[in-house]
Each structure stands twice: as structure tokens, then as C-alpha cells.
Amino acid sequence: MSIKSRLFLSYIGMIVIPVILIILIAKNNVNDVDPIRVSELLEIKNAEISRKINLVELNNEDKLGDIEFIRALDTGLDNLYASMVWRKDGQILYSGIMDQELLAPLLPDFNAEFNEESYFKSKFKSDYLIYLQKDYYLSDLSENSLFLVLNAKLLERDITIARVLFVIIIISILVLTTRLLTFSVYRDIIKSIQKLKQASNEIKNGNLDYLVKPHLKDEIGDLSLAFEEMRVRLKDSLKMQEKYEENRRTLISNISHDLKTPIMSIKGYIGGIRDGIADSPEKMNKYIDTIYKKSCDLETMINELFLFSKLDLKEVSFNFQPIDIIKYLKYCVEDTTLDLEKKGGKIELHHQEQAITVLVDAEKLQRVIMNIVGNSIKYMGEKPLRIGIFVENKAETVLIEIKDNGLGISQEDLPFIFERFYRTDKSRNTSIGGSGIGLAIAKQIIEKHGGEIWADSETNKGTSIFFVLRKYEGGSDKLGKNIDN
Fold first, then answer.
1. Whether residues 268 and 373 fall in one domain
2. Fewer Cβ atoms within 10 Å of its own Cβ: the N or the C terminal residue of the chain?
3. What is the Cα 53 distance to its own chain's centre?
4. Which domain holds residue 184?
5. Burial (CB count <10 Å: 0-12, 13-18, 19+), residue 315
């Protein structure tokens, strides 16, 4: 549940729960000190007491002078803040919970006119309210009066206390409900934030292996997932940076080694010419040819380094156009055949007799094919080199395989042949030549085409380089989304 939903439900609970509890408490307790309720009960009690007094007056009037009888009439009245009061010849003999000194001057005179409608509606202008006045004579001719009196002061006091308690209960319910609901909502939020804080401290201190797990499926949980993704990317970035640093050191070492060799060779032959070692036209021509060849190798190496650097920095633009891949490969085969025949090799194209349109940069693709074929020539071995180019038409792509019968690549080296400056000959034998980045350039170019490239090889049996190109059908670029221009 989202934080917004939980907060909304919490706010609803803060309103509904206290209202329900307040209603229940008010219904069960407040009526006990409700003046209207007390008045109603006293009216009932008044009628009951009047009947008892009338009945005793008819049967045994002197019983009205019995204190025990009067106490019996008074039973239960204290719960209604009332009491029976007996006055005889102007003296109060029984007053229950009433204060005789305060009550005496308020009681009506014997046989005075009593109007009960004037009582209780006076809103407690007097501390005592009279509900009943019964005047009678006993056998001793004494003047007696029985009163049913309400102690309004006690009722008002308890009403005030009840109101204060009710307010305290309401405030307590509101505070408790708010605290419980707030704690239940924010407990998980704070726990999630604390976990996120701990994770940030771990990552800040360099512990990129600390896993950030979301505590709940809410906004902070989404933040934790984003934080975890950031951690993984940061870790991968640092690994990549370390790899780049390692590659940089390897690059400097390899460039120093590969450039030094032809330069030293050129320098040596020039020194031979200067010192007069080339003392015949034949030697002179041989020295000059060697210098020219080494210069060409050096130029090729520098050009490849420059191209790879631009590809790595994404500074090379690609001009994608639809072409017939079969016709294009035929052209590449014809262009390569002459050089291969001079080395005793042969290259053939195997395909179905149908046009297949692909979307490529023709110039860059030719570089890929030349680099792969050039790699086959370098590692051709002693037997005549045979290279076959096979085309397989698939649903949305074209699979091209360039296969040779050369020395092959060991399974140990195979996963690394597309890395920059990687050579299967660890001694970097200069007789093989090359910069060591031909296949790395091929990989860069094919990936820029939205395809992929891989190899399969077996030692002393040959190597197959596979790469995939996207088809172009009626203006629809099947893999166009993968192109990074």
C-alpha cells in the first residue's frame, strides 16, 4: 500500500475511531448525571413516595412520625442527589444528605402553597429544589412536614466533574488514537528510511556489495529499488573503470611494443644505408623495399589505432544504406582473391541464388570483412589457406559465416579474441604482424549496425567468425532501434 493511501486511512481512523468511542462512552456514562434524566427519575420516585405516604396516612397516620419509616422512604434517593426531609414543629429531625442549616430557611412554611412547577426549571438558582411537600398532624397535634428535596448543588458539581472527565476522556482518546495510528503508519516509514540511510552510509564508505532491500512496497520501497539499481550501476561503473584503467596500461605497453618494432627496423635499415652496408644496387633496393614495407605496416597500425579510438569515443558517423548483401560479398571476394592467390590461398562465396537486402554502411562493413580475412591470413599455417563465406537467410536477419582452415584458436583464448590488443601468441611475434585490434574494430562496427559477432574455433582445424546483419524490407528497418549513430 502506498504512503498516500496509508496516510489517508490513518486520517480517516483518527476521525472515525474517536467518534465511535466517544458516542459509546457518552451513552453509557453521561446519562448518570444528566439533569433531565435525574428529573424524570425523581418524578417517578415522587409519585411512588406520595402513594406510600397517602396509604400510611389512611391506615396508621402516626407511622408518619416514625424515623425508620422515613428512612425507608429515603432509600435510593441519594443516587438521585435527593433526600427525604422531616420537619416537626419547625425543627428538622431528618435530612438525609441535605445540610440542615442551609436547608432550614429555604423550606416552605407549614400549609404554605407549594407549586412544584416552579422547581427544577429554575436552572439551579437555589441549591435545593423541592419536589414534594406533605403537611400533616400527628396524634400529639404536632405540625409535621415531609419534603422530597433535590440537592442541586451536588448534581451541578457532579455534572461539572462529568463534563471535565468527558473532556479529558475525549482528549485522551484523540491523543491515544492519533499516537497509535501515527506510530503504526510512520513506524514502517521510519524503518525503511533508516535502512536506506544505513545503505547510503555503507555505499559512502565504499561497500558496494551492500544489498539494498525494500522494506515495503510503497514510495520508499520504489526509492530503495532505485537506490539498489544505482548501487549496481555504480559497482559496474567502477569495475568498468578498473578494466579501462587496466586496458589503458595494456594499451600503452602494447602500443610501445608494436610501434617500437617497425620503427627500430626502419632505423636499422636506414643506418645500414648511411654506413654504406648497402653497397650494391640489389642491397639498396632490398633495404628500400623493407623500409617501405615497414612504413606501410606502421601507417596501417596507426590508422587502425586511430579508427578504434574514434569508434570507442563514438566519433565515427555511419552512413546506412540498403544494399544487396550477395552482390556486395561477391565484390569483396573478387577484391580479395588476387592477394590470396599470391599467398597460395583461395576464397569462395556460398549462397542461395536470391537477393537479400540489408541496411549497412558499405565502407565500414568492408573493413569488418577485410579484418576477418586478414586475421585468417596471419594464422593460415603451413597448408594452403581456404576461406569460405556462407550466407544464411533468416526471418529478420542475415547470418554470415567466414570460415578458414588455419591454425585455429584454443578454447582458452576464444572468449577474448574480440578484445583490444589481444593476441593468441603471447610473445607478440612480429612476424605475424598487425596491431591486435582488427577483430575489436570488427566487433565495434557490427554492434553499431545493431548486430552481434562471435567466433567458433578448433585448434589446427580452423576458425569460423559469425556476424548478424538486419534485413531491410520495403523501407522497414527490423533492428533500427538498436542503431547508435
1. no
2. C
3. 82
4. 1-206
5. exposed
